[in-house]
Structure formats: structure tokens, C-alpha cells
Design goal:
By secondary structure, the chain is α+β, with helices and mostly antiparallel strands. The chain has a single domain (about 5-260), classed as Double-stranded beta-helix. It has eight helices and 15 strands. The strands form four sheets. The chain has a seven-stranded mixed β-sheet. The chain starts with 5 loop residues before the first strand and ends with a strand.
Length: about 260
Amino acid sequence: MKQLGHRLAADDVKVFLEEDGALLSLLDAHGLLVVSDFPQDIEAFEHLAAAFGPAEVVSPPVFGLSGHPTVRVQSNLPGQGVSGGGEYWHSDGPWSKTPSAATLLLCEIAPSGGGETLFTDMREVVDTAPPGLKAKLEPLVGNYPCRAIYQRELDQMGLKDPDKLAGLQDLSHPLVRRHPRNGRSALYLNEKWLENVIGLSEEESTELLDALLDIATEPDRVYAHTWRANDVLIWDNVAMMHKALPPAEGASKKTYRITIKG
């Protein structure tokens, strides 16, 4: 299994939090931070998230933690948050003109089997691409029909979110994004929200996107994080693409998520 990211203990995080910008610099360098033994304290989790920027409000709001509008509850326990989210390769926040900058997950209940979160470093995909392919990708732009996709997701969950739907519009994002702080290039894909490449035929678009997804998710590129209670994962949504795997039958999983505005 590939190893990605930088590992920290909760005490290390306290030290970094005392120095302004230190955690953000660490995330820029590694793309993924893995913190162990973090306290089950939502206020401490929110304080950690603030080191990376202002947080997004949870949508649909029904999945927000009571009293904490920027904390989303995710679990396969009945009535406790959203279940089965993110089980496809993606980066968070494609419905915004500037997608989510970072995501933090705090694990309360770790599954006894399954439930891993997979990551692949999209900077490495660009860095290792043949020069001809890299040059071909640079000008390409993907089409994201955000309103239709979000409406479909709401319908599947039997929910309504008129406020967010009213603000959504179809968007385009470049296939190669440059990081706003360090300028590094990274491939930007989404298995569900990216419908086609603008300017290519349907056949050409499907062939290219399928090939890029296959390259980005080659087994030797993928890190699978096996959760333990009190783990926190923090990832840069420009640098990393991720995917959640479902817990094994009969296994419970519960996490809290904060996303940082782009």
C-alpha cells in the first residue's frame, strides 16, 4: 500500500497551532495530514479547522450537528447524519466557482471492518505524466452540471434544499488546477460531477476521462486509510482526490466533517 501524507500526534498539532500558518504550510507540502489521538471535542475540532481558513455551512442543513452549523455528521447509524456519502472518486466542493480548499474528518466510531478512505495525490499524476499528455491537458476544461446533479442527489435522499439549489449554476473547472498558494499543478477530476470535457466529442471526452481516472487510481498510487477512533484526516482538495469505502456488513462508522472555503 502506498503511503501518503504526514503523520502527527495530537500533541504535535497543539505545537503547530501556536505558530500562525504552520499547519497550513505543512498541508501545502504534503497534501494530507493524518492526526492520531485527537480528543472527541467538537470545539477543539472547530479550532483546528480554523487554522486552514473559514468553514463552509453544512448543506443540506439536516446533516449539520446541532449548534455547530459547519460540522456535518456522517454515519451508517440510523438517524445520525448522512450515510453512504462520497463513495466515488472526487474532490470536495465542485459546485463552487472556487471549490473547497480543504476537508477535515474526525472519527468517533471506527468500523471493525471496511470503511477505509482512499486517497491519490493528483499533483504526482501531473508530475509523472508524459510531456505530450501534460501539454494536451493544460488547456482543457470540464463541464459540471451542478444543479441537475445536486437535485438528483436530493431526490435520492428524499430531501429538499431550495436555498442551495437557488444559488447553484452549471460550472466549468480546468482539468489541471494550479494551487493558489504554491503554484503546483494537479489533475482535477470527479467521477460523478464531471460530465464531459468542453470542446471534445462525447466519445473523445469519455475516453479521455476514463483513461485519466484509471491513471490517477492505479493501485500503486492509492493510499487506503484504515480508521481508528480519534483519528483526524486533513486534506487539500487541490492536491488530493479521495473516495470512501462502505463499512463491512454489521460494522458501524461515524465521523464529523468540516470543509474549508476555497
